[in-house]
Write a structure and sequence with these properties.
Layout (H helix, E strand, L loop, with lengths): L1 H24 L1 E9 L2 E12 L2 E8 L5 E2 L1 E7 L2 E8 L8 E10 L2 E8 L14 E5 L2
Antiparallel strand pairs: 1-2, 1-9, 2-3, 3-4, 5-6, 6-7, 7-8, 8-9
Length: 133
């Protein structure tokens, strides 16, 4: 009986942490990053739907793009992917993001597939987003 009670308490604790983390990530996050023509605004809108993280990301003048493979890794970390059109109609470029959340601030680190950094071979660049009110 004691073993079952301990297991149940540990399970409830773990579920509570994940629910709290998921609720804490949902919302609108805004910031900017340096682009080829100067600063570009970024908007990340995250939603929790039946325990699944979904959302869209807008950068600069590009239209909002749905994020894919979004996950709440732990109480302060998320990950997701975003596809961009390839140059000259080539294969899409998939950028993987890892986000670290601390209060109302999120630090995103992008990295393109194939071992390239998120900056077109320049290495990963951190992007700081703030929770919009």
């Amino acid at each position: 009986m004691t073993r079952k009670a301990f297991f149940l308490a540990a399970l409830l604790c773990g579920v509570s942490v994940m629910v709290f983390a998921q609720a804490g990530v949902a919302g609108k996050w805004t910031g900017e990053t340096q682009g080829r023509q100067g600063p570009q605004p970024i908007t990340l809108e995250l939603k929790m739907d039946a325990g699944k993280l979904t959302g869209t990301m807008t950068q600069g003048a590009q239209p909002a793009a749905a994020i894919t493979d979004a996950k709440v890794v732990d109480a302060s970390t998320i990950s997701f992917k975003r596809s961009l059109a390839g140059r000259g109609g080539g294969d899409p470029i998939v950028i993987e993001y890892t986000g670290k959340i601390k209060g109302d601030e999120m630090t995103l680190t992008p990295s393109a597939g194939g071992g390239r950094g998120g900056g077109g071979g320049r290495g990963p660049t951190e992007i700081t987003l703030k929770r919009a009110s």
